[in-house]
């Protein structure tokens, strides 16, 4: 089992390039199957979830040509099956986007119930509500979601909860439905705008993405396009928190600063200096971080995917901070691991009360999920001594070459796959 091993105490300095947004790219790859022409997508992050979804798309019969780790072309005209079910696809959450894409184009989809990080129950009732509202029959049986329709018809859908996945999935299915669909209480994340822009570049007619009302007029056919995915705001925010926690000074490049506003605002409240440029932000950490309060909310609120990373920053800030998780019901699993590194955090319901300590101490910890795993890496970088992070397959679902990018910023970190390699690293850095 691979692990990250870190010798903490080194401040991060220099520049880091951010990759394409995983959660936009996953939906865009699914949407790319909705045309019989060839679609080329650039700025893909080369991470596990992307590779699993591409494999599933190929298994459907689509022609997939991985021109480089960050560029792929897809031609859906050879798709002969509407059933997606394998051991890998069951592990990722974004498999559900293939339901919206296949139902939208073929009026037929059978996809394994989605997996994903264990941060809560992860229902898909809102996705199903949308598909049914457009006239599909949807059944869950044998671990599969089966959706079928004579022909999807546009309708008015109100989402009871703000849901990124449901918003994107319904938008995709509606793109080729008959007539007009209105999605009320839609999620407004930047990657929803990215998916809408992608579909519109294929000839779809989608207006209002990025607001809470999205209007879609279905079209009979979608065509080829060439598209580049937006930068990943969560990867960017993760490096911003790593700079803050290690007392560093890092220029995070290839970002859209507006997408990072909530993270920047909270790091400023914690004492950091943030300089914004056209496509970069610079984070200059203070000598000592200070406490603040964070509540996760749908965009443009503070992103839930940045919650563990921000909690690690506040864990070594002066004073008492609170972190309130309002999106998922089980997103504090990293607290026990962080406690092993000396953190003093009390979780009461969906609120973590964090009494800042001076420094984390290195320890052996397990990554409980993707973003919590990245947060534990940040704690190791900021801590004293050696930290070993296990179960890093979670982290590699969403971060490309994390240890290489951190090493370029001055971190002393390596990825090892045996106790022997681990001891070699420890000897080398001692
Ligand atoms: C997407 O998950 C992201 N995953 C998550 O990122 C992210 O945390 C989340 O959006 C919120 O931004 C992908 O894009 C692959 P939701 P998703 O639907 O679509 C409830 C990461 O780290 N809900 O916006 O599953 C749900 O339980 C991952 O990259 C329903 O009740 O999130 C949650 O409480 C982790 N019924 C809330 O809505 C539904 O049908 C928001 O979930 C759907 C969701």
Protein described:
A hairpin with a 2-residue loop joins strand 4 (63-68) and strand 5. The mean pLDDT is 96. The longest helix is centred in the middle third of the chain and has 13 residues, at 233-245. The two termini are 24 Å apart. It is built from 13 helices and 24 strands. It has helices at 22-31, 48-59, 97-106, 125-133, 164-174, 190-201, 233-245, 261-269, 307-314, 334-339, 370-382, 402-408, 419-429; strands spanning 3-7, 13-17, 38-42, 63-68, 71-75, 83-84, 108-112, 137-141, 144-148, 156-158, 180-184, 206-207, 213-217, 225-228, 249-253, 273-276, 280-284, 293-295, 320-324, 344-348, 351-355, 364-366, 386-390, 412-416. Helix 1 (22-31) packs parallel to helix 3 (97-106) and helix 9 (307-314) runs parallel beside helix 11 (370-382). By secondary structure, it is of the alpha/beta class. It has a four-stranded mixed beta sheet, with helices on both faces. A four-stranded mixed beta sheet has the order 2-15-17-16. A four-stranded mixed beta sheet has the order 4-5-3-14, with helices on one face. The chain folds into two domains: 3-19 and 231-429, Alpha-beta prism (UDP-n-acetylglucosamine1-carboxyvinyl-transferase, Chain); 22-228, UDP-n-acetylglucosamine1-carboxyvinyl-transferase, Chain (Alpha-beta prism). It binds ligand EPZ. Residues 23, 26, 93-94, 117, 119-127, 161, 163-166, 187, 304-305, 327-328, 370-371, 398 line the site of ligand EPZ.
